[in-house]
Amino acid sequence: MVRATVDDPVSDAPFQGGAGESGQWLVEALDPEQRQAVLAPVGPVCVLAGAGTGKTRAITHRIGHLVASGAVPSGQVLAVTFTTRAAGELRGRLRTLGADGVQARTFHAAALRQLGYFWPRIAGAALPRLVESKIALVGRAASRARLAPSRTELRDLTAEIEWAKATLLTPEQYPAAATAAGRETTHPPEVIARLYTAYEQAKREAGVLDFDDLLLLTAAVIEEHGWVAEELRSRYRHFVVDEYQDVNPLQQRLLDAWLGERDSICVVGDANQTIYSFTGASPRYLLDFPRRFPEAHVVRIVRDYRSTPQVVGLANRLVARVGTAGTRGTPGGSSAPGAQGTHGVAGAVLAAARHEPPRLVAQRPDGPAPTFTEFDSEPEEAAATARRIRALLGAGVPASEIAVLYRVNAQSEAYETAIAAAGIPYLVRGGERFFERPEVAEAVQLLRAAARSADTDRPVGLVAEVTEVFAALGWRGGDPPNGSGAQRERWENLAALVRLAEALVAADPGATLDHFVADLADRAVHQHIPTVEGVTLASLHAAKGLEWDAVFLVGLAEGTLPIIHAQTPAQIEEERRLLYVGVTRARERLALSWALARHEGGRRSRRPSRFLDGLAPRSASSAGRPAGGPAHPGVDGAGALRSRGRAAVRCRVCERPLVGQAARAGRCDGCPANIDQALFERLRAWRSARAREQSAPAFVVFTDATLMAIAEHRPTSVAELVGIPGIGQAKLDRYGEDVLALVDGREPSG
Ligand code: ATP
Ligand code: MG
Question: Which GO CC terms are listed, alphabetically (predicted)?
Fold first, then answer.
């Protein structure tokens, strides 16, 4: 039975589920470890487990079971997570388990509701307006503080103020804390502290609050007003937090305020999926939970239900390398636990990896091997991805079961263009505001009007009523219009609403238009969008907690993943965890790809992400653009792609096969030159002497580049000498012996 959730944060939500139901079926659908989490008595519970092990499933079943068995009234449960999408996912799953009276919200949504309720009684006025984005106010504060940051600096400064607030630092405390945490900032910490003060002042003057204030104020109100604490705590008695590895100190403070001295709290998380530590989040709360609550039931799950053994194997290999990405080319480079402002994220994750069984054990049957593909340019990568998606659709994979995931939102454009050109419907996760789309808003309005009208001539059944209303908007069921333009998008959005009505009827055959309208209103409030039939384009951050049959991880090149500004070992590790999150989103098919140049015909100077070192099959890390045969292998190709079959010249630093200029130089562009400086100096001195003898300029003997290549290669034979660019037969005859002697540390006889 689906009903709108209760709006009043302190009144009792309707009790759903029924004390008579034992909820036994909720337990039967689980494995022994998940059952432990579900059946642990009311009190502290902590589930520490890797991706796809059913953590979210375990907590929703735990709530469902507590409610169905009558142990806990649904209205007393507050489940929190971090994104509206994840909160929607939680609500959806709870609903199907008969626990729809449970509040499942983001921290912000929960705080907004509570503060909006209590504030007028505390301050005698409505809650001040919330500013959606800080950046304009920070800009104003910056000019007041006589700073003129560039756009990117302003963005970084805003992020820094956000970090300070998320970690509960005042402007006075900021400089010392930022230094201790090794924050890399555009301005000196003292200047940022001044800006932070000016920002707070600008905000006060404008009479607005930011999102961090919302959490802080809610916590403060509970801490300072006994009656607020009492009212709230009598309302919410049981707390559940999903993705707890990404909680920040500010959110933790609010959680503590909600909890008070009680201990009915269930947290689940995976330290290897910590991807927000640079905004102040820290997995230490998750990992320290058993210390904080020594009587806690701690459950560890290793069975992975989401992905095939092939995908799980790749995820395991990736996790096994945590802490080894310090410096490119130095395997095992340090990742300095506790360094660089992560609250010891790297250390915590390493510790977790030591204590937790590090490997996931796949439960699903075998599937295709993940593919690794290198492309000449980004547009080629995007076009090939679109073609592969086409092939999948042709093979019967639904569009909503396919995702393209990237590191930064700016990457989405190339894929939107390519996918639209291929006539494939898609939706961009994160950018969408489904319920604000004109056709959706109009449809909801018409449905509301139809629900109110006393028209007795309506068709029978909710779905028929909905399709009739949509007919007034020109929508017809059946096949979608061709292409992927605006018309197709409109059709798909309305079709998604029809599917919602169908799902509602499936769950509750007696559901009426009133129920549907209430459900839509609830979804709109929570931005819980229905599944639109289209390929998902999303950033790796936005993909957390979600899953698809086929996942394309694109743009896996150095500078993009890890992102160019990730410099410290801790930052690099966070980037690796992002890839781990990406890999573990795939149920069956996983395609990893990268491009060597940004534009078609551009310089192919990029390198595959360092995280793929040792993960990609050897032949795939070659210049493995598909050659011959089918131009673009499907995601279900046999793993590595064929290389072009050229005789491979390998980089002497990283051993990657080389082509073109890089092959001539014997080293990738990006690899550090390893020049023997002393030899280089000796070669230069020798060259000057020979040039003087010939009364010729030095470069006539050898150019600097050739000398550098010699000092780098240190050739020990004639064969090696001729491999060096700039040394032909004439120079070999003339100077070969001298050079070999110099390399050998002897005096040249000439
Ligand atoms: P993430 O870390 O990515 O958030 P998770 O640990 O929360 O993952 P879930 O999303 O709960 O994992 O589960 C992953 C998938 O495995 C889901 O499709 C879920 O329905 C399925 N699943 C989980 N547990 C079981 C089980 N015991 N039997 C069958 N399927 C299961
Ligand atoms: Mg989950």
Answer: cytosol; DNA helicase complex
Residue indicated by tokens 């000057």: 688
Ion ligand 2, residues whose Cβ is below 5 A away: 55-56, 545
424 and 445 belong to one structural domain: no
371 lines ligand 1 (CB under 6 A): no
Distance CA 399, CA 306 (A): 18
Domain count, the chain: 5
Q: What is the CATH number of the domain that holds 113?
A: 3.40.50.300
Is residue 399 annotated as involved in ligand binding?
A: no
pLDDT at residue 561, as a whole number: 93
Instruction: Please check whether residue 551 lies inside any domain of the structure.
Output: yes
Tell me if 317 sits within 8 A of 613, measured CB to CB. Answer: no
270 CB within 6 A, ligand 1: yes
* Separation in Å, CA 634 to CA 62, 405, 626, 643: 40, 17, 11, 16
Same domain, 372 and 316: yes
Same domain, 690 and 574: no
pLDDT value of position 14: 31
Does 49 belong to an annotated binding site?
yes
The verdict on 378 and 427 lying in the same domain is yes
Q: Is 54 labelled a binding residue?
A: yes
Whether residues 538 and 622 fall in one domain:
yes
Residue 547 pLDDT: 94
Residue nearest to atom 13 of ligand 1 (CA): 54
* Within-domain flag for 399: yes
Query: How buried is 78 (Cβ within 10 angstroms: 0-12 exposed, 13-18 middle, 19+ buried)?
Result: buried
For 484, the domain range is: 434-502
What is the pLDDT, as a whole number, of residue 449?
A: 87
Ligand 1 geometric centre to CA of 546 (Å): 10
Residues 118 and 138 reside in one and the same domain: no
Helices (H), 40-134: 55-68, 84-96, 107-123
- Model pLDDT, residue 236: 96
Q: Residues 427, 449: one domain?
A: no
Euclidean distance between CA atoms 23 and 18, whole angstroms: 10
SS3 568: coil
Ligand (nearest to CA of 580): 1
Residue nearest ligand 1's atom 28 by CA: 30
- Within-domain flag for 21: no
Atom of ligand 1 nearest to the CA of 585: 3
Centroid of chain to Cα 360: 20
- The pLDDT, as a whole number, for residue 120 is 92
206, part of any domain: no
Q: Which atom of ligand 1 is nearest to the CA of 51?
A: 2
pLDDT score of 569: 87
Question: Distance, CA 545 to ligand 1 centroid (Å)?
Answer: 9
pLDDT at 724: 78
Please tell me whether residues 537 and 638 are part of one structural domain.
yes
pLDDT at 632: 32
Q: What is the pLDDT of residue 422?
A: 86
Low-confidence ranges of the chain (pLDDT < 50): 1-21, 325-345, 348, 351, 353, 356-357, 431, 619-648
Predicted local distance difference test score (pLDDT) of residue 163 = 94
Residue 85 has a pLDDT of 77
The response to whether 50 counts as a known ligand-binding position is yes
Q: How far is the CA of 257 from the centre of ligand 2 (A)?
A: 25
Burial bucket for residue 438 (CB in 10 Å: 0-12, 13-18, 19+):
exposed
